[in-house]
Amino acid sequence: MINKKVNSVKEATEGISDNMTFMLGGFGLSGIPENAIKALVDSNIKELTCISNNAGVDDFGLGLLLKKRQIKKMVSSYVGENDEFERQMLSGELDVELIPQGTLAERCRAAQAGFPAIFTPAGYGTEVAEGKEVREFDGKMYVLEHAFKADFAFVKAWKGDDAGNLIFKGTARNFNPVMCGAATITVAEVEELVPAGTLDPNQIHIPGIFVQRIFQGKDYEKRIEQRTVRVRE
């Protein structure tokens, strides 16, 4: 069994450089690869294309990369919680490709499975479909969307083992699983790293074949994006 464990986030991000394309898991601030993002910020690499469901918030998550102008293009679905993202997009500083959320997930999944493209009805008849191939299947129109191509996928799981097998917990089981294996190199950070062979095979969500590097994360903040509580009577 191949040992995928690396000893630090620095070792896990070895090989990153300017002008690369990264996938980053998470939904809102749930299940984002906090350690990897911090390492990318500290590396000062720039001209990045980032594929992520959302763009974090101003002072956390991908918002930290945006703050330092390290991202040249965002490929996302929901970006409504980041004022700096909005400013850069409206000023023309940031190239933005907005994608329907289901299409974003399926383009990740297509890359994971080795499919070059998918056909989806989402976006037909709108600006999303402009310049793209459109075909009819059983009387319904579909838009051709290409699978993503990325250099690195950074994901976060609850538990993993040295062989790269992953278990996700709660809402963190969102875009993380479909991004595993969807890039040239998948880096997984986990809250708990255990020896290979100790995880229950029936509980594993992503097998280690989809992961090239895995490390034990630390100092997770796990922020809540929008916290709402009921006023006590």
Automatic annotation (TrEMBL):
UniProt xrefs under PROSITE patterns: COA_TRANSF_1
SMART domains, alphabetized: CoA_trans
UniProt similarity note: Belongs to the 3-oxoacid CoA-transferase subunit A family.
Keywords: Transferase
Pfam family, one: CoA_trans
Superkingdom of origin organism: Bacteria
Gene3D superfamilies in the record: Glutaconate Coenzyme A-transferase
GO molecular function ontology, one term from the record: CoA-transferase activity
Entry protein name: 3-oxoacid CoA-transferase subunit A
Organism: Bizionia paragorgiae
Keyword Acetylation listed: no
